[in-house]
Amino acid sequence: MRDGNENDPTDLPRYISAHEVAERAGVSRSAVSRTFTHGASVSPATREKVLRAAEELGYQVNDLARGLLANRSQLVGMIASDPETPFRALQISTLSRLLIENGRVPVLITTDRSETGQASHETLLRYRAQATIVLSGMPSKAFIDLAQRNGQPLIAVGRSEEGPDHVRVNNALAAQTVVQIFAARGMARIGLVTSAVGSPNLVERERAYVDAARNAGLEVVVERAERTDYEGGTLAASLLLSPQRRIEGVFCVNDLMALGVMDYARNMLGLAIPADLSVIGFDDIPQASWGAYRLTTFQQSAERQAREILRILDRRLSDPHAPPIISELDVPLIMRDTVRSPKPGKGKGEQTFTTARTTEGTEK
């Protein structure tokens, strides 16, 4: 009878070993290793016997152990905050699928500003991941520095630190385009809805939007919530859309906040969209196209972004000492039903951006 010891070795799962495969196949242990090593020399007859024995026993190669022995695994870490939000979920699932298709093993670590989150990041480094992809404004710069000191390839998405490879979007051009659209419709008072998160993407959108509005002679009001989510959008809308301000157009730094703004404006204030209020978002999450919203927004393609990340990863692994690779993706504007029509003769400022620009060895 067991005494309830949780560390009883008999409770541990037992995996079929390469030695057992060798015995079943009647070959040496090294023959099994060569059979499962890409490019290694092994005769067709031996390979057939080993593969047959492995199938009968249910044997799988221990890639983690191999990676540790080689000081590099096929693990690729993905560090992300708010994995439950629509765009982040799409970003994670798309990148995971492409990594698996390319023979890699994605490992997701969710992040926040706590010590627990930092400990998780350090664990990923100890497992000798092939690379780490940072998908959000968190973790802190301290982790970015730690990863670089350990020599691990690092791809940062939507960040601004010097050193790592980067995939960015053209936030400034998008924000300036929103101002052009609102100005073309004769608006004088416009708003920005953002959050206190302070990630580089959000800061860039806010700065470019405010600067463009002031340069165009428009009055601009910024309201921010604690989080960049639906509830944050409703809260910011309650502060921004007072009758005294008479805001005519709102740019929201992501679609979730835009949906919150729209619902608050219609349900709590009785405003008609777009007749009384124009709204533009960012991301083009699936909900943006729903009939209840039909949100005009800038499209971040998770598929295109993930493929660019893999291109950079392959480039980095083939040339570890190459200068930083910086890829900037423009975001196309998807016009739907949340922006009122321009005044006659004033629609020329609007643009659609569909190209990508990649530079290597240049910090922007």
What tags apply to this protein structure?
40% helix, seven-stranded mixed beta sheet, transcription, Rossmann fold, alpha/beta, 12 helices, DNA binding, transcription regulation, elongated, 3 domains, Peripla_BP_I, 364 residues, disordered N terminus, 434 Repressor (Amino-terminal Domain), six-stranded mixed beta sheet
CATH superfamily of the largest domain: Response regulator
Distance separating the two termini: 67 Å
Q: How helical, in percent, are the residues?
A: 25-40%
Helical element count?
12
How much of the sequence is in beta strands?
15-25%
Major sheet: 7 strands, mixed
Order of helices and strands: HHHHEHEHEHEEHEHEHEHEEHEEE
Oligomer: single chain
Q: Give the number of domains.
A: 3
**Low-confidence regions:** 1-5, 347-364
**Which class of the largest domain in CATH terms?**
Alpha Beta
**Largest sheet strand order:** 2-1-3-4-5-11-13
CATH topology of the largest domain: Rossmann fold
Q: Strand pairing plus helix content: what structural class? A: alpha/beta
Q: Mean of residue pLDDT?
A: 84
Radius of gyration: 26 Å
The outline comes out as elongated
* Proper CATH architecture of the largest domain: 3-Layer(aba) Sandwich
According to DSSP, the number of beta strands is 13
